Amino acid sequence: MKIHLILSTVLLLVLVACTRETRDFQQPAALSEPASGVHMSELHPGGAPVPKPITNPFESNAYGVSEGKRLYESYNCVGCHAHGGGGIGPPLIDLKWIYGAEPANVYATIVEGRPNGMPSFRGKIPENQVWEIVAYVRSLSGQLSKDVSGGREDHMYGKKAESSTPKENPKISRPLGNPVPEHKQ
Amino acid sequence: MGAGEVASLLRRRMSASPQIAPLIRFGQVLLRTFPGLFYCLVLLSGCSDSRNHISQGKHPEQESNYQSQAYKGKMEPDDGQWIRPAKDLASTRYSSLDQINTGNAKTLKLAWTFSTGLVRGHEAAPLVVNNTMYLVTPWPNLLYALDLTKPGAPVKWTFDPQPAPESQGVACCDVVNRGAAYAAGKIFYNTLDDYTVAVDANTGKLVWKMRLGDIHKGETMTMAPLVVKDKVIVGNSGGEFGVRGWVTALDVNSGKIVWRAYSTGPDSDVLIGPNFKPFYAQDRGKDLGVSSWPPDAWKIGGGTMWGWMSYDPDLNLLYHGTANPGPWNPDVRPGDNKWTAGIFARNPDTGEARWYYQYNPHDLYDYDGINENVLLDLPINGQTRKVLINAERNGHMYVIDRTSGEVLSANPYGYVNTATGVDLKTGITQAVEEKKPRFGAVVREICPAAPGAKDWQPMAFSPRTGLLYVPHNNLCMDMEGVDANYIAGTPYVAANVRMYAGPGGHAGEFTAWDPVAGKEVWKIKDRFPVWSGALATAGDVVFFGTLDGWFKAVDAHNGSELWQFKCGSGIIGQPISYRGPDGKQYIAIFSGVGGWAGAIVAGRLDARDPTAALGFANAMKDLPQYTTKGGTLYVFTLP
After folding, report:
1. Can you give the pLDDT at residue A13?
2. How far is CA A146 from each of CA A31, A59, B15, B573, rounded to the nearest angstrom?
């Protein structure tokens, strides 16, 4: 009985870990029908049915998000939106979304373009790569879970990265009442 | 090195400059008589060495006892109108109107205002012709004609060129427009989507429209045309998109293209022919616009012309700069990258190049060469020379013989640590090795930063003081070269940049500069880059605006503040002065923050990312606390 419990827990953990770490090189065809789920307004007159939001499988996948970051730079998204702070285009690290924050909206923005300057990348970026970029873009504003999102780009700051600075000496905990021995050089 | 060697060094110096020969001979005698003096010299030279140390950089020299010297050259007659942004063909931005003077400027009052209803950067200079004011707005590039003869200057007509909304997505540094030009009953200006339009100045009807570029390649047009004789001369923008830069002349009456000169490529495209006689050896040779690039890189190499042009009618020469090579990351384009980041003198009738000088061969820092050229005749070393003066982005104030292209002086007017100076014999900038950007490494404290010690914001010249009034920046940056990937119509920069205020902690300066002495006379520091143009007037009042919205009048002699007015939004426009139908002198300025410096407000950028707005947002983090967006024209006069 006990062994079953342990086994199923391990199996569950493995499965969860799989989603985060999995690297699918053949993408499911389902990803290629995004437009149906796009809506640009929260107002639905007459109680019309609200389209069901599409889930982007890469958003639970650290590899997909990191690929999205790489592609975001390669396709020159970075030239207009910088590392999320914006420039020619609007920022992506804040919570303001002109054309919607849902994965399907961001997908449509990239593929269809938007009228005030966002180019249409239809035919330029393969669909699966667009979904990876969508995952990365949404991670910039903290919409993805932390275990798949990378840290914010900060290497341009003058201070050194945390990992490159020397580690502090850990304070050794001592039992109460014991005197701290004198430090010997 | 002993005293004898110092003496021989002095001898060598002597041969180089005969004017100071007697002084040097005196020095030699002194050294021989008092050998101890040598050690004092060593100490002194040690001092100057440490000041010139490469990591330290250079500040401008200050003039200690300046005596104002009226300009002896000729100025274009002033009819009280303002028909081109630079006022005259020599680009002095000087108004001979003198009702407003240092005594009464403090009483200046608002006369009327005009809202454009637009929220992007308003960089244009208003024009005043035949009692009508013409205003060009940022995209959608509306042209307003305001009737100055009626109270409150109501709108006479509006012209809407309907530029493509998509063009906003390929404008590197806000969707600005720097103004129009008037000639032959027409107003000429450029639209963001690459049309030059001619509009009837009376009726507001389109006369002609000519498409000159392609937004799908990242080309836009933001500069103000210059009309020379029967030609409208314009240039393109898009140096951050891998476009190929050009200057084009159109017929004023038909809009037909008369000539086009590219800034890169074979000589036939650059309009380099037998009459091309550059002063320096490095600019001579066949098809340097091809051979100074990796194969085919010149086709996407930049060298746009989005800035200012001047014209000398006596020499019949047109002067224009060429902007930065693309991409910013210099490692992917080995070579001098001709003819970018330099200046051309051309025959405006044919476009044929006469001479060229490259300020920044193989530009490392986005130092565009397109700043305004002020044409003056100045006494240099006892001789009157026809010169042009250019406050280059690289921080040096160039005085160049405009007949030949010889650099006569190039002193730093802002803080510079990317170069130790310019060798006047060879014309070559002495670059500092340790400040060169590297692929995949962040090089820190590069001064000036990418927008330069001065960007497009044009300076003014007053013949009464003989001084130039220079609005400019005090910015440094960290820069990292990254992979470049050219996709037509997307940015081609390949660099990460983070900017911040330079030495002193202030990001802007307004400097009065003596072009003969090559020294600074006075300086006003500002928290933000001074991104507005300057205006000098015969009342010895100089005008400029700040990014946080203060429009200021200062004394031309000493920079003391006479008056200021807080406008609704930050100022990046160009002030003008005109005589109204009532005979009074008026001062007009656009307020409306934006442009590269003000993009953080106009584009609502997020400076938590230090690379936002190509790194400029980081230096402007607190600007949103000081100003909000919105375009309004302000017009002032005496009560």
Report:
1. 58
2. 23, 11, 72, 45
B202 classed as catalytic: no
Do you find a cis peptide bond into B339, omega within 30 degrees of 0?
A: yes
Question: What are residue B235's phi and psi, to 5 degrees?
Answer: -145, 170
Cα distance between residue B144 and residue B130, in whole Å: 15
Give the count of alpha carbons within 13 A of B406, CB side only. Answer: 9
For B417, residues 6+ apart whose C-beta sits below 8 A from its C-beta are B54, B55, B56, B57, B58, B432, B435, B445, B446, B447
Tokens of B439: 């692929």
pLDDT at residue B2 in the model:
45
HSE at residue B276, side-chain half, CA atoms within 13 A, is: 22
- Cross-chain residue pair B613–A87, CB shorter than 8 Å: yes
Number of domains chain B contains: 1
Predicted complex ipTM:
0.89
Rounded Cα–Cα distance for residues B231 and B611 (Å): 41
CA distances from residue B611 to B605, B608, B617 in whole angstroms, order as listed: 11, 9, 7
Beta strands in B484-622 (DSSP E): 495-501, 508-514, 519-526, 535-537, 541-545, 550-555, 561-566, 576-579, 585-591
* Interface contacts A/B by beta carbons within 8 Å: 119
Residues 6+ apart with CB under 8 A from B392: B359, B360, B367, B369, B371, B398, B410, B452, B453, B454
Cβ-based contacts of A78 with chain B (< 8 Å): 491
What pLDDT is stored for residue B630 in this prediction? 98
**B406 catalytic residue (yes or no):** no
Quote the domain boundaries for residue B128: 58-150+171-637
Give the pLDDT mean for A85-114: 96
Rounded to an integer, what distance in angstroms lies between the CA atom of residue B619 and that of residue B581? 43
Q: What is the band of A154 on the pLDDT scale with cuts at 50, 70, 90?
A: confident
Q: What is the mean pLDDT of each run of 10 residues along chain B (639 residues)?
A: 45 45 52 48 39 64 88 97 98 98 98 98 98 98 98 98 98 97 98 98 98 98 98 98 98 98 98 98 98 98 98 98 98 98 98 98 98 98 97 98 98 98 96 95 96 98 98 98 97 97 97 97 98 98 98 98 98 98 98 98 97 98 98 98
Q: What is the pLDDT of residue B589?
A: 98
Distance CA(B179)–CA(B190), nearest Å, equals 8
Q: Say yes or no to pLDDT of A3 above 60.
A: yes
Go through A56-85 and write b for each residue having 16 or more CB atoms within 10 A of its CB, e for each that does not: bbbbbbbebbbbbbebbbebbbbbbbbbbb
CATH number at residue B417: 2.140.10.10
- The CATH homologous superfamily to which domain A63-146 belongs is Cytochrome c-like domain (1.10.760.10)
Out of B88, B174, B194, B240, which one is annotated catalytic? B240
**Per-residue DSSP letter, A96:** -
In this structure, is residue B485 part of a structural domain?
Answer: yes
The string over B404-419, giving b where at least 16 C-beta atoms fall within 10 Å of a residue's C-beta and e elsewhere, is bbbbbbbbbbbbbbbb
Strands B127-129 and B257-262, bridge-based pairing: unpaired
Does B363 reside within a domain? yes
Minimum distance, in Å, between the CA of residue B475 and any CA atom of chain A: 16
